[in-house]
Amino acid sequence: MDSFDPRLIAVRSAHFIGGQYREGPAGMDVSRPSDGQVYAELPVADAALVDEAVSTAWQAFKTSDWATRPPRERARVMRRWADLIEADGAVLGPLEAVGSTRPHKDVLGWDIPYVAEGIRFFAELADKHGGEVAATQTDRLGMQIAEPYGVIAAIAPWNFPLSMASWKVAPALAAGNAVVLKPSELTPFSSLRFAELALQAGIPAGIFNVVQGDGRVTGDALCRHPRVAKVTFTGSTVTGSSIMSTCALVGPKPVTLELGGKSPQLVFADVPDLAKTARTVALAITGNAGQVCVSGSRLIIERSIMAPFVEHLQGYFNALKPGPTWSPDATLAPIISRLQATRIDGIVQRARQAGAEVLSGGGLFDGLGGAYYQPTLLAGVDNHNPAVCEEIFGPVLTLQAFDNEEQALQLAAHDTYGLAAGVHTADLNRALRLIRQLEVGTVWVNRYGRSNDYILPTGGYKRSGIGKDLGREAFEANLRFKSVLIDIG
Question: Which of 293, 302, 389, 391 is catalytic?
């Protein structure tokens, strides 16, 4: 069933520490993006409670057998966890959808299966790694031994609450670490069920803890805690820079940061199906209402096909129907908050003042309760326009035309971001040339967006991040390596 009554969804306003729910005094209201209604109150973990959660994780790491049990047994437990998640759609689905921007039908059809299979992927890596024997003199034995860090702090964003939490938690647990997760204060509740199911699967109490709160208090305390050996974060470049600075000052301790993006989609005149490519471009900016770090927010198109392509785009934009995440008929998600919608509109209005022409959209939908932003297409922009420079995190697409490949690359370059890019062309040689020249962490060719190929890592260049999520790289980033030299003569 794709719909549900949001008034009937019960949430647990609590932390999850040592395998138990911990109630706390309310610190902030939590609203449903779909209708703007406050539906819960959230406790905020202060430094003392963060210390308790981290200390509990550290004790579980040292006293349970999670890090030392045979890797295949650790993998079996994680596979049970994945099975429980996959079977829990009736609870997890509405819980994820009611307080986030994720439509219920997408949570059931994509998010939950994606999370479960991702956990299985990382579980399979548990016994697929090891150290390395080094080349030394014959009377010596040199080795590198891989070991878990201990306690990993994971700070997840609000745009894909379960999926992004799993990116952080699954590889850390598979490598034998303990984790303290801070979900976004805007979408806090599905993470509690996520942790509860981990406990049911057999992950020892205290190995996976959840603390609620904001970044200023709870997130900062996590980053500063001396028992936190590493921090992994997905979110804005500004916040990521602050986390990196804090970890340098109090550690130093390593970080994995997946940060902002302003990703170009380059469309050449030789694409075989203009309508299909236009649909791909449209979905890349309107999926989750553009609230995706890799959203293809800059359309860079060969001038000769611009007019018919824009017509196709406008048709797709106009066909989208905004509505609450619990409505099976809605095809455009809400913006996470009224504050974020106002920010989106502010950038659009500044872009207009700087010369942008609005070809579609350009404002909020009226009378829907929540904040829904019209899919917007802006033409007449240069690389200095605010809509081109700034990450908008909404369904706003800029349009720039080129006449040759060199111009396309010049327009695609961005001073700040280098997260992803799309290339749409029938010319394989051109695609391969552009792949090598685009300064981004991921390039999609004749498609846009991630698949369930968990083996492919994701991460950015420039100020779009440091390190990788997904792939072997994400698993290995949760291990540290010890050098050993033995005299055997």
Answer: 293
CA distance 342 to 347: 9
Fold of 6-259+464-484: Aldehyde Dehydrogenase; Chain A, domain 1 (3.40.605)
Q: Residue 1: pLDDT above 60?
A: no
Where are the alpha helices (H) located in 66-219, listed in sequence order? 71-86, 89-98, 104-106, 112-124, 161-174, 190-201
Distance CA 267, CA 271 (A): 7
Mean of pLDDT over the chain: 97
Domain range list for the chain: 6-259+464-484, 264-451
pLDDT grade for 448, boundaries at 50, 70 and 90: very high
In this structure, which amino acid lies at residue 217? V
Q: Which of 96, 185, 258, 391 is catalytic?
A: 258
Does residue 391 have an active-site annotation? Answer: no
CA distances 335 to 185, 260, 385, 400, 463, Å, are 15, 17, 23, 26, 24
| Listed residue (454, 431, 455) closest to 444, CA to CA | 431
Rounded CA-CA distance 358/380 in Å is: 9
86 catalytic residue (yes or no): no
Is residue 248 scored above 80 in pLDDT?
yes
Please compute the mean of the pLDDT values over residues 316-322 and round it to a whole number. 98
In a 10 Å sphere around its CB, with 0-12 CB exposed, 13-18 middle and 19+ buried, how is residue 104 labelled?
A: buried
Please list, in sequence order, all residues whose beta carbon lies within 8 angstroms of the beta carbon of residue 320, skipping any fewer than 6 positions away.
286, 331, 332, 375
Which CATH architecture is the domain 264-451 placed in?
3-Layer(aba) Sandwich (3.40)
Query: Residue 11: left (phi > 0), alpha (psi -120 to 50), or beta?
Result: beta
pLDDT tens-digit map of 419-437: 999 999 999 999 999 999 9
- pLDDT of 385-407, one tens digit each? 999 999 999 999 999 999 999 99
Chain center to CA of 363: 26
